[in-house]
Amino acid sequence: MVAPMSKAVEQKVREEQQRFNAARPELWKTYPNRHVIFLAGEVKGAYGNALNAYRDALTKFGSAGGFVIAQVTKEPEVWHIYPSA
User: How confident is the model over 23-38, as a mean pLDDT?
Assistant: First the structure.
């Protein structure tokens, strides 16, 4: 089970999501269809699947790291972030 996000972490993730979406066209050139860890406006790792990306992100940045795990697709995807309470 995943612990709920604090409001501060939730805000960090939302901001990172916006940076990821803005960077998507450039990321597509280097990471097409890869799952990436995106943090501080840059790719911190690229993987063949989301699970490996998530596991590595938790190891490197912890559950409060504020990172985004996303597949780099040509077109934006719909995102869902659920508040902790």
Answer: 97
